[in-house]
Amino acid sequence: MPERRTRALRPGRRFDLRSTAMFFGLLAAALVTGGLAVRALAGAAQRRPVWAVVLLCLVLAVAVARGRRRRRPSAARIARQAGRALARGTSTALDALDTPPPAPLTVPAQAGPPDEVTSPLPVAQGIDHEALTPDEFEAATAELCARDGCTRVEVVGGAGDLGADVTALTPDGRRLVVQCKRYGEDNKVGSQDLQRFGGTCFTVHEADVAVVVTTGEFTVPALEYAEQCGIVCVDGEGLLAWSQGRAAAPWAAVPSEEPA
User: Fold this and answer.
1) Average per-residue pLDDT in the chain?
2) Taking the complete model, does pTM exceed 0.85, yes or no?
């Protein structure tokens, strides 16, 4: 009978406790190092999301480049792809940056008769103030102040304004502070609104003339408090008369102090 050649058995590897312990030790060290690296990258991504986006774009670009060609790309090709990915990531990060807050709106002073003045704001003569947004109502009130001769007119309303929506200097040089209340017919300006404004208009904003302008009406307690504190109240009808030129400016109701 023909003899069958059998494959020689390879000698098995003997179990080495020292090598096995070293292998598992290196594996544990690698896992700990990888976990610390992932944790550090996560913290860096929270603090610097822009660079996280850049790094992600770079990794995606390298992965796409390796998938297109099976052969190993050259160092020059990798450098070009990395440069393009970095440029795209930087452009995306710059577009995502927050824009700086807008500067306060300044209304130029009136230089002549009202008919000859050209203002960047819509002319507030006989307009429907109730149809305006709160910001538009403040701008329209500032336009009225500039139209009647005030200088250094600014719209400063917003978060943390402490009740001052429009500030200006009257034609006779007094500091004017105006609070604008765009209320509906069913919502009147109450005494609490006047008390909050009265607590800041003179002490914080150093107003010589304090005015509250509303598209609605004032309650009786609010009018009584305003009279005690020297605050001028302009309701919806008074605002319409002021804008149409049928009534004097609000600061005219507060006489200026005569020089000693």
Assistant:
1) 75
2) no
